[in-house]
Amino acid sequence: MKKEKSCGAVVCRKGENGLEILLIQHKNGGHWAFPKGHVEKKETEEETALREIKEETGLKVALDTAFRKMVTYSPKPGVMKDVIYFAAKAKKDSARPQPEEVLKLCWKSPEEALEAVTYDTDRQVLQAFLEYHKKASEK
Q1: 59-100 per-position pLDDT tens digit
Q2: What Å distances lie between residue 85 and 18, 36, 116, 124, 138, CA to CA?
Q3: Which CATH number applies to 2-138: 3.90.79.10, 3.40.1620.10, 1.10.3880.10, 3.40.50.1010?
Q4: From CA 134, how far away is CA 89, in angstroms rounded?
Q5: pTM for the complete prediction?
């Protein structure tokens, strides 16, 4: 069994009507999810997440590693993949999709984002993020 590892983040910003979540539609499969990608060489999880977010969306973000969720699944026979998600806050709104990997990107309210994500595992990550964000906002 081959092991793969990717890292990414649930990226948010403060929009006109409150919290907004960044979703990207991947070219590979057309599913809606969060920016993420494979760990390269000696990168840390954090470095991978920051690089992939920048590559796929053009955004510079502040990464919050106090939030860390892992999802494990099999993308193809004989392969198990771990995906680590952090929380991230967009520093500026200059998001643009990377044409090679991303069909489109959009900012959604938490409710819209929960409906829009394709996979249940991503929905669980987003729900955990929203609970984490709410607690952090109350401090």
Answers
A1: 999 999 999 999 999 888 999 999 999 999 998 767 788 888
A2: 22, 8, 18, 11, 22
A3: 3.90.79.10
A4: 14
A5: 0.93
